[in-house]
Amino acid sequence: MHESLTDKLNQLEQKFAAMGQDMASYLEGLLQADYLTYWDYIHLETLLSLQNPKTAYPDELIFVTYHQITELYFKLILHEVDQIAHIEPLTAAFFTARMGRINRYFQLLEESFSIMITGMEREQFLKFRMALLPSSGFQSVQFRQIEIVSTSFRHLLIGAPEEPEHIADLYEFMYWKRGATELATQQKTLTLRQFDQHNGAKLIRLAEDYQAKNLHHRYQQLERNGQITPDLVAALREYDWRVNVRWKLAHLRSAVQYLHKEPEDIRATGGTNWQTYLPPKQQQIIFFPELWSDDERQNWGQSAGIPSKPD
Ligand code: HEM
């Protein structure tokens, strides 16, 4: 028998023997097994069965599918952050390479947002959107998870007291609690209340778990060890800008495109405070504040231009 084949068989035998298993039985299993197909591996049938519009408007398929595509990218982003959070020892090279992947995903999401902004008929959108209430992308728990694993919890709060220190007590001050407020009554929308009921406890646990391993914390660890490189700083700045300015602006453009009404009309017809809440310059969310100058922080979200490399 070919030498490398004998080698492989020996290795296999050792692998099975280590678990008290008989290799011959497994080889018999291989003889019986079918070849793997693309469609089984990708779960294509299941995947294509998951787009279920609620109305007969053809453009709703675009809406539901694009949300799913975004959620899949969010999953990949969380997957990369998870690796940065847990690898020991973390190096600047690994951190930078993984941030490069994440930045590419966000760049793609931002560029593809034109599928939402100009890719659907407004008349259809305004009709089918009514059938989806009170659900909203605002309820994307993966987006909130990305924020929480990216930075110190305090950077996501507005108006929080210096004390208390417990994350559970600070949760009410998360910046997005200011969104999804009904203009007419100034009450939290059902969208927000349902989100909290379903995800609040889970998000608090995640924030506690990531206190000492979120991206901002990992950056600070490297900094204390004198291991920061200009490439890592550039990658983290790019990330901050892609999530908190560029993606938010692309998303805002879709809201403006479909939902823009004069303030009087909104008050008359209900609706939320999205016009004042969504613009990144209002939110001022920054994951890595120390990587930006005072000037850059003060002008956060004012311009969509690419941030220059720091000196
Ligand atoms: C035509 C397309 C879209 C429109 C018109 C739209 C509209 C809105 C509005 C009005 C809000 C504010 C929440 C509220 O007032 O209830 C919101 C929030 C949000 N939406 Fe969308 N959206 C669109 C597409 C998407 C997509 C594709 C995603 C991807 C998951 C998404 C994710 C989010 C997120 C994460 C928030 C919260 C943003 C924040 O807190 O800053 N949206 N959206």
TrEMBL record:
Any one GO MF annotation of this record: metal ion binding
State the Gene Ontology BP annotations. L-tryptophan catabolic process to acetyl-CoA; L-tryptophan catabolic process to kynurenine
Show the Pfam families listed in the entry. Answer: Trp_dioxygenase
Q: Which UniProt keywords apply?
A: Dioxygenase, Oxidoreductase
Q: Say which domain of life the source belongs to.
A: Bacteria
What's this protein's name?
Tryptophan 2,3-dioxygenase
